[in-house]
Amino acid sequence: MISLIVPTYNERQNIAALVERAGKALALTSQPFELIIVDDASPDGTAEDVRRLAAERPWLKLLVREGERDLSTAVMAGWREARGDVLGCMDGDLQQPPELLPQLYARLESSGADIAVGSRNVRGGGVSHWSLLRRFISWTATLMATFILPGTLGEVRDPMSGYFLLRRRVIDGAALNPVGYKILLEVLARGDYRRVDEVPFIFDERALGESKLGGGIMLKYLAHLVRISIETREAVRIVKYAAVGLTGAFVYYVALLWLYATRHWPLPAAALVGVALAIFNNFVWNEVVTFPEARRLDPSTRALFRRMLAFAGFSAAGAVLSLALIAVLVGALEWPTTPGVLAGILAAGLWNFTTNSNLTWRAWWNRKILSRAAQPGGADFNPALAAHDLPPGKRLVLCNLCGSQRFAVLYRGRSTRAPDLDPNSMRCTSLEHGGFTNIVQCSDCGLIYQNPCDDDETLAKLYAGVDDPVYERESGGRVRTFGRLVERLGRYAQPGRLVDVGCYTGIFLEQARRAGWDVVGVEPSAWAAKLAREKGFTVFEGAFRDAHELPAPFDAVTIWDVIEHLPDPLADLKHAHSILKPGAVLALSTMDTASLFARLAGRHWPWYMRMHLVYFTRESMRRMLEAAGFEVLAIERHERIVSLR
Ligand code: GDD
Ligand code: MN
């Protein structure tokens, strides 16, 4: 359902036509809709008119507020009453054509945008009869906003628009600031969204009634921008950038003094070298401290050089600009030296920050770049994720739980490197941690997995070749761990026939047999399977789903610390379900990505590693088990006994 809010104050002359046109336009979307007029007790009787119109229009609603008069809070009050999953707002004076609504809605529906903005500043959009001065003021205001808040507004050309639709979840958890004067700014600063689309329209002259927005607006607006900048912590970038600038000034000053006074270089040469050193100094600090995202997104050397060149270019231009300005101010206009030089430095600083934060390091704020980098389709940007650039033996995968291909990157792994085909890196006792590609989270169901990961062939080869002498040496602790697991399994099932998936050297099989189970194992490693067979067990060598000769049906399937290694765990769980007797039990263990340790350790959590392909939480484990046809009886903590010898 679409819920469109129209705030009104003294719009009696416009409201009937607006309701008529908006109603027609919304009907064209063939969605259920409601139009909520939020009127701040207009003295001209707007509310009475709306009430009359609503009598024969079930989709028209009226909200009258007494004692309040504010455009933004009116819109928010409307959203609170709204029932739609698509929310929007539009002015009540017909300066924005309601006929654009179906197009705005189409952007949400078909192109996957989270916010669709009616925009004056994209091709095809504009303002009707504005004077040059009015255009200039509007343009400056927008530019200023983009400058102060590149992270928030960087890619929206008309952030001042009061005409837009959005998905409800964008603002669901957001604490919108009720006194913010421009509601879209608030949404962009605090909402949760990936993509904003703009649809052009011509902002018409007001035909009837008068504008409510008077003096002081510009100042309030600036205050609003500064406030958002601080609250979204974008201001921190400006402070960091300025601090780096100071170190650069220091480098320049020291170099100049030393070369000129001590080494007796000619002044221009000393100054030139000083500037070069300062630019280099600033580049390094900004790259590392101010805008670290750019390098994380594209760690290639080529991109580094591109950024360095851009930075040097903009900064050199800034230096020339400031010198020219100082020459004009002090030389031609005869300003005193200190304010003249300060003005020059300030202008250069503004120029440098704007160009470099918006062009050189634009990756840090540009949601399109960020989300494109996170999409498999974003081949043109992120080399680590580009299909044609996938390292041999790696493949991009879909979410194993819901099949979606949309994901967000939680932890970007090391950049592409030659594939490691040494099977011993897959040893159970392998300490090769952190060697993951990217740890990502499904945007649709939240499952966490590694992407890209080793393809099936590589995995099969690697696991088949594993041998692991340390494992046998450490077996003391494992015997006790598995002994307890057999005990716990006994609480849910009577001993019967059991298959242990990934039985490795058969330590669990031994414990289970001792407790009366009739056991077989499945194990891909030839070395481990052989050891298990030597202990007298039947072991099928290879992948679980290829083990067709298993003596099904079973009373229990166990999968200990193996599920996270499987490329298609859902299919394996379904397979497990199919070989179990009705009412029989599946028992498995895996690590918990939502554990306190995992959350504290972040990307350094030791279990984020190459051989772990899927990372479960209690939640996602439960959902996958249910998707495979199981009913979850219990989720318990699992302790491993590790010997420290
Ligand atoms: N409920 C309520 N309370 N509505 C109000 C109030 C108020 O205090 N003040 C204004 N409105 C309503 C008006 O009735 C109109 O429907 C809409 O808000 C826009 O007000 P205008 O007075 O027409 O403002 P504007 O045309 O100068 O500015 C508009 O243009 C911007 C684009 O530049 C604003 O609507 C912005 O939202 C829009 O982005
Ligand atoms: Mn208006």
Secondary-structure blueprint:
Layout: E1 2-8, H1 12-27, E2 33-39, H2 46-55, E3 60-64, H3 71-81, E4 86-89, H4 101-110, E5 115-119, E6 126-127, H5 132-148, H6 150-153, E7 164-167, H7 168-172, H8 183-190, E8 196-200, E9 202-203, H9 217-231, H10 235-262, H11 267-290, H12 292-297, H13 301-332, H14 337-360, H15 367-374, E10 394-395, E11 407-412, E12 438-442, E13 448-450, E14 453-454, H16 456-464, H17 469-473, H18 475-492, E15 497-501, H19 507-514, E16 518-523, H20 526-534, E17 538-541, E18 554-560, H21 569-578, E19 580-589, H22 596-601, E20 614-615, H23 618-627
The structure holds guanosine-5'-diphosphate-alpha-D-mannose (GDD) and manganese (II) ion.
Guanosine-5'-diphosphate-alpha-D-mannose is lined by residues 7-9, 11, 38-40, 69-71, 74, 91-93, 95, 160-162, 211-213.
Commentary on this structure:
By secondary structure, this protein is an alpha/beta fold. It has three domains: 2-230, Spore Coat Polysaccharide Biosynthesis Protein SpsA, Chain A, CATH 3.90.550.10; 234-370; 469-590 and 615-627, 3-Layer(aba) Sandwich (Rossmann fold), CATH 3.40.50. Helices cover 45% and strands 14% of the residues. The strands form five sheets. The protein has a seven-stranded mixed sheet with strand order 3-2-1-4-7-5-8, with helices on both faces. A hairpin with a 5-residue loop joins strand 12 and strand 13 (448-450). Helix 10 packs antiparallel against helix 11 (267-290). The longest helix is centred in the middle third of the chain and has 32 residues, at 301-332. The protein starts with a strand and ends in an 18-residue tail after the last helix. The model is unreliable at 371-388 (pLDDT under 50).
